[in-house]
Amino acid sequence: VPALTIGLDMGGTKCAGVVLDEVAAVVDEHRAPTPAGTDAVLATLTTVAATLRDRAPGAVEAVGIGLPGLVSADGVLRFAPHLVDLFDVPVAAELTARLGCPVTVDNDATCATAAEWQLGAAAGARHAVLVTFGTGIGGGLVVDGALVRGGHGFAGEFGHMTVDPDGPPCVCGRRGCWEQYASGPALAESARARAGAGRLPGPLAAAGGDPGQLLGEHVTSAAAAGDADALRLVDEMARWIALGLANLTLALDPERFVLGGGVLEPPGVVVAPVARRLASALGRAGGHRPVPDVVAAALGARAGAIGAALLARAASVPPGESRR
Amino acid sequence: VPALTIGLDMGGTKCAGVVLDEVAAVVDEHRAPTPAGTDAVLATLTTVAATLRDRAPGAVEAVGIGLPGLVSADGVLRFAPHLVDLFDVPVAAELTARLGCPVTVDNDATCATAAEWQLGAAAGARHAVLVTFGTGIGGGLVVDGALVRGGHGFAGEFGHMTVDPDGPPCVCGRRGCWEQYASGPALAESARARAGAGRLPGPLAAAGGDPGQLLGEHVTSAAAAGDADALRLVDEMARWIALGLANLTLALDPERFVLGGGVLEPPGVVVAPVARRLASALGRAGGHRPVPDVVAAALGARAGAIGAALLARAASVPPGESRR
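Predict the joint structure of the above. Result:
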């Protein structure tokens, strides 16, 4: 019987689950919408995991979960500004009890970083930073060849770094957070304002003519097709992304940035202008130091779930054996 | 004969040198003003090191140098915005040739971090961030119990992280860098503007009545003595420092910040309001996560030179022996 691992990734809109086999290949998938409230979230996590386990072709050894917020080292979700009313939820303990097998819990972007580093676009890097652009910005770090969680498990919360102290208020209680300039909602808001002023006819038509229905993907799809107005808007977002990556370069000096998340689909549309802008965003230092590579994530929307499974598997390896 | 190590710290205004004995105690010191130009800087480093070596009570085993800029892993100073006309200077190779002993070169704040971590205010921390406030802002990192230099040796350049993209232009070529709001020159500039408007009478009197002569230390000294106008100005700077520390907390989740540099003298005046403000600078997350400790550096102005010597000593330990 092969040893299988389940990985779940609870995002702002959906809970995605995968089953990994011994060579880390995805052998099954299942997903459900993200509900509101602690009980409903715990029930959804349980159901998605149980569904995958019940139809798995072998014994499931461990379950890993990625959550969009501050997850402490003991598996408690402390704070998740993009989930409704979740504070201090002991997810690892609850799910371990409900599923009857070992459950590990990590930040979702930490999971995605583990996956991209082990199997994807950060493979081989000793210093890499993953940044995902979706409902918010998530992040993860590899420093000197090791995944970094920080002193309390909360490293990589790049999205709430202030890039403009006079900027708009954020759900996190701060102002001018990076994710307010580079995320799905941020791109949609810029697009709606511009479409309302008649300056985004292509994407507006794709959204059925109602500016209120415009989403970030209408803009990125139009940009991919060469729409000049959409390209301008994407380039503006790319400028903000490059500014944030320059800040992270100054702090961490990575060899490589791996960019993922739904906002970057199709990947080349946003990643290419960001890569172009990073050297100049570094100012004069950009001419005196290596500029980190900027590449698109390789594992797509499943990175978080795959990484959650990988981390669960690593945690379940008996001491003395390799746990990469 | 005891094994001695020399450490040099070239700052924007002076080159400070120390001699450390085997138990890392400072047994001698020497300093010289920082000159302009590559040749003069190399000559000053050589002279300060040679002076200390000539009068040392034993054999000098190695020399370590800290420099205020981007130092690559091969000991080349690539870029130093606060030194005049220094680019791509092979300091390690030049000084090794001139002094005839092993010379290691690191960023000055990396050196100070090594010293504070081994002997000072960061001792025992597995996740610590050092930030020094002087002519500019320097920084260093301890992550998972190891000193971090980054992929190319350039990690910890926190001072040039953008905190306001509409802010004033910086010597580094970017805009609104953190150090433009929290450094000696930044505090002096705010003080001059305020004194010119008659709103800083105490420090202005201490500066001889000429706003152009006002320095940051006039403000911090007056604040230490309870001057209400000076305290207000210091609190404004503390707010900017807390904003930057909150950004670094989000990215790195350290257990402890160690703050040093001349601008924080006397230390309690600035460090205390920064520590008070950090939780609220973290927004709502500040109530759901441990807030890092904020403490003053313990080794004072000699931290960089001491750390340079410690790093030189560690590099000269033969493979197989401990080099902590």
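Chain B touches chain A through 55 residues (CB under 8 Å).
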